[in-house]
Amino acid sequence: VVALAFPNDESGRQAIAHLARIRRGLDVVWQVEEGRHLWVVNLMPLANAAAVEGYLLRIENWLKEHTGSSYGELSAVAPVDISLAESDPVASLMRALKSAAA
Q: For residues 28 and 37, what is the distance between their CA atoms, to the nearest angstrom?
């Protein structure tokens, strides 16, 4: 699972729309609105670490092209990679969503 927080504004909605277009065929993408942030949560079945890394790299390249900034330079954009091999991946996702809302 990869979750990304974007600002809850027009630029965030545009970024999420783009992410929906570049998803892999097996991916399941949904949006969560949490306070000041819009989250895009991407369940990436059958994806290894390299696939996740490639996905995040494509997103960062798109951000650089459209905003001139990378993840580190955009405080509202925070990728969270949660492995389903964790003991409680749902709890990890909930913690990420709650920490961004704080």
A: 20
